[in-house]
Amino acid sequence: MAVQRARSTELARLFNAAKQPIYVLDEDLTIVFLNRACEDWLATPESLVGRRCGYHSSLAVTGLDAVAAGLCPPPGVLAGNTVVAMVSGAGESGRSAVRRARFVPLGLEEECLLGVLAVVDTADQPPALVETDRATELREAEPIALHEHVRQFRQEAAARYRADRLIGEGPAMRLARRQVALATGGGSSVLLVGPPGSGRRHLAAAIHYGDSPPSPERLTVPTLVPLDCSLLGADLLEEVASAVARGRALGEKTAPGTLLLHRVDEISTDLQVELAGLFVRRPINWRLMATASESLAELARRGKFREDLAAALSTIVIELPPLARRRDDLPLLAQLFLEDLNAAGRRQIGGFTAAALDLLDGYAWPGNLDELAEVVAESHRRAAGREIDVADLPERLRLAGQAAARPHRPEETIVLGEYLARVERELIRRALARAKGNKSRAARLLGMTRPRFYRRMVQLGLE
Amino acid sequence: MDCLTTADTVAQSAPARLIVCERTGCWAIALRRELADAGVRVWETRTLADCFEELAESPASFAVWELAGDVAGLLRCLARQGREFPRARVAVVADGHLAGYEWLMREAGAIRFLCSPRRSGRLAQLALRHLAQVPPPPQNLTERIWASLPWGPGRAAGTREG
Known about the structure:
The complex is a heterodimer.
Chain A: H1 2-17, E1 22-26, E2 31-34, H2 36-42, H3 63-69, H4 75-78, E3 83-88, E4 98-106, E5 115-120, H5 127-130, H6 133-140, H7 143-160, H8 171-183, E6 190-193, H9 200-211, E7 224-228, H10 234-245, E8 258-262, H11 269-279, E9 287-292, H12 296-301, H13 307-313, E10 316-319, H14 330-344, E11 351-352, H15 354-362, H16 368-382, E12 387-388, H17 395-405, H18 416-434, H19 439-445, H20 450-459
Parallel strand pairs in A: 6-9, 6-10, 7-8, 8-9, 11-12
Antiparallel strand pairs in A: 1-2, 1-5, 3-4, 4-5
Helix pairs in contact in A: 7-9, 10-11, 14-16, 18-19, 19-20
Chain B: E1 18-21, H1 26-34, E2 42-45, H2 48-57, E3 62-67, H3 71-84, E4 89-94, H4 102-108, E5 112-114, H5 120-133, H6 141-147
Parallel strand pairs in B: 1-2, 1-3, 3-4, 4-5
């Protein structure tokens, strides 16, 4: 024991004698050692040992936390690679000195990272070099830029995905709001059931960001990892799920986050077996959320989904009704989407005319909230006045409204010969367009001889 | 088709497309090679503004966007896509040195993040799955007639060849 202590002291003496700033992080990116040169470089009033230098997303990290954050290694190190990257020695005084550092991952065996050793250059990087194109490009991959982007993105995401945007006064939406409040802040698995486009992903994000709002006190915000089960291959789903189940970092070292299995009811039976093996038998430190068109318990009862996996994913079940069943909420929802567009761009549209709202109300909305968002966005682009009027709405809505308003008149007839002549005329036009005006080729496309084709053109008034 | 210019001839949004927005064209070339047998056309744009114009025509498209350094700009575009074209899906591709952004881009809404055109086969499969899942725009009798033409969906004289 005494020998070991002596060796540790000798090692510390060696590091402290080195002219290069050296620091060591443990597996959680907590600073466990800084040599004297590093302390001199950072010039902090107290030691940074014990502070984390993970990717942060707080509103304004200041003081020693900011200094520690500037020392964060790039993601490649956590994947087991020795990486040269820039670190910032931005001290409390506000000076910013960027230096090159070599990061060496320690003890990466069986995907287990023990720590990171960082050796920093003795001189600051000249600003001119940092500003060259290549350096700028490379800098993007460095921790400082990544930090900033993660921080900004999560601040914006937390503002965008808020539970108070869950508008609706019907019983279904009131119940959904209560369940969201229940789910937020807990670690239970959440299943969001509703038709495609009903806002399931938005709600999942609202619960995730509601769990962990960015604040100056928090250095890290858990990652949200959405996986679209109906699109992504089984191999990728399994790979990510397996990493999550083992508590491994996904590219960046963050606190355990949320795995969102979108459209989980569409995964194959084989993948259900794999996921059950990962999530059912052992506890995991990630939160699980899933979306589905139908209750997983109901699917399990019909033998279409594994019962154990359905139970693991359905601790809290939140049902979202289709838009057609919450028409009273439509004006408010449309206005909400409009306000988002106003906030994001230069065009400011005040609202909808009463006639436009009537038309929105009369539509079936098979695509639910997603379709409403698209319709509002399209109308926002088209609108010429201060409000969105009927003429600004997509044509399909206007014509659906006209069709609904027009009483069915069984006596209304068409003249078949005239109707077919018009169809034939259009076919000939299109064949000619296809044949680039060559009549013989157009005739062949329509299975006619050239003289007959020409005769029909004359008869139909096309020649 | 003046007799059909009622509800029958509504100009529906165009069917979903595969749109690639990149600087060089290398991903588009790789995807064309992968999709040669599937008969899927690859639409190319050089700017995200152009890509949004394509999305306005085909809101449920599958887009491939290149991350070329302007991370904040791409994040803003992903937010815009989610706001204005929620049925579209976006995959982000990038040079290897930007690999660290994978999970940020995914969190922001990218369905996939790839760093090598050699893996374009996976991207092609993803695009095919998405295009197969998107319901075709509702067709009336007239549109069904044009769509059934043996040379593909009919285009009236004077319209551009797609």
